[in-house]
From TrEMBL:
InterPro entries: Per1-like. It is a multi-pass membrane protein. It comes from Prolemur simus. One of its GO terms (molecular function) is hydrolase activity, acting on ester bonds. The chain crosses the membrane at residues 180-198, 204-224, 236-258, 264-281. Keywords: Golgi apparatus, GPI-anchor biosynthesis, Membrane, Signal, Transmembrane, Transmembrane helix. This is Post-GPI attachment to proteins factor 3. Residues 1-20 form the signal peptide. It is found in: Endomembrane system; Golgi apparatus membrane. GO terms for cellular component: endoplasmic reticulum membrane; Golgi membrane. Its main location: membrane. Involved in the lipid remodeling steps of GPI-anchor maturation. Belongs to the PGAP3 family.
Length: 299
């Protein structure tokens, strides 16, 4: 144990020259994983591991080597804390306390609640806004078709909604052409990340660029119509809140109680923002419906 602690101290003070994270470069971690796999992940020991492994773990794809890495991660974390060092990352991630088969239980729960909030508000929107509203099919059908590639899709969909609301209701052909352009951009983006390589830097830069376009476009339209349409204040609040909350993603710290990190906090914080945005969509769609009915009566 003393020898391992000594190597740990030397590693903590040395500059990193190899790829990976500090924790998985630690000799104590590597030795632990190697010995664990030799002891548990072959022959009769592997059969014993599989026989006692919960069915939900095997269905989720957790293997014997995965379990060794998880257990050895905590052995290494314990040594770091014992020697007074900061908690290291492993394979690019902070150590999280596993719950069932979830590696990041707080983020998983927050993602579920985000999806649930969006689903509830979408159902409410479809109930309260008649299908004859000019914005109805834009908000419902296209969202389902495009909601496949996480953040990039959501941002592009928001840009499309903004185009329809500001230009497309008067010029549908422009909105259709813009939709085709956005779909082409999304296809190219997904193809590059899926087939060539997943470049985190490029993905972040692309999302930030589209996010800025989305933010400026919505804010410009809201400020232009704030006196005529009081409900656009909700949209302004949504845009500003999302930009402010996105700063949470820049924070980087070990998970609180080995469960709650900055990403999970961001997920939880955005739940009421989704509710507010759907409330804006509902108000705006009902306004457009009344406006269109008034024009029909005049005609």
């Amino acid at each position: 144990m003393a020898g391992r602690a000594a190597r740990l101290v030397l590693l903590a003070g040395a500059a990193a020259v190899a790829s990976g994270s500090q924790g998985d470069r630690e000799p104590v971690y590597r030795d632990c994983v190697l010995q664990c796999e030799e002891r548990n992940c072959s022959g009769g020991a592997l059969k014993h591991f599989r026989s006692r492994q919960p069915i939900y773990m095997s269905l989720a794809g957790w293997t014997c080597p995965d379990d060794c890495k998880y257990e050895c991660m905590w052995v290494t974390v314990g040594l770091y804390l014992q020697e007074g060092h900061k908690v290291p990352q492993f394979h690019g991630k902070w150590p999280f306390s596993r719950f069932l088969f979830f590696q990041e239980p707080a983020s998983a729960m927050a993602s579920f609640l985000n999806g649930l909030a969006s689903l509830v508000m979408l159902c409410r929107y479809r109930t309260s806004v008649p299908a004859s509203s000019p914005m109805y099919h834009t908000c419902v059908a296209f969202a389902w078709k495009m909601d496949y590639f996480c953040a990039s899709t959501v941002i592009l969909h928001s840009v499309y909604l903004c185009c329809v609301r500001t230009v497309g209701l008067q010029r549908p052909a422009v909105a259709s052409a813009f939709r085709a352009l956005l779909l082409l951009m999304l296809t190219a983006h997904v193809s590059y990340l899926s087939l060539i390589r997943f470049d985190y830097g490029y993905n972040l830069a692309a999302n930030v660029a589209i996010g800025l376009v989305n933010m400026l476009w919505w804010l410009a339209w809201c400020l232009w119509n704030q006196r005529r349409l009081p409900h656009v204040r909700k949209c302004v609040a949504v845009v500003l809140l999302l930009q402010g909350l996105s700063l949470l993603e820049l924070l980087d710290f070990p998970p609180l109680f080995w469960v709650l990190d900055a990403h999970a906090i961001w997920h939880i914080s955005t739940i009421p923002v989704h509710v507010l945005f759907f409330s804006f969509l509902e108000d705006d769609s009902l306004y457009l419906l009344k406006e269109s009915e008034a024009k029909f009566k005049l005609d």
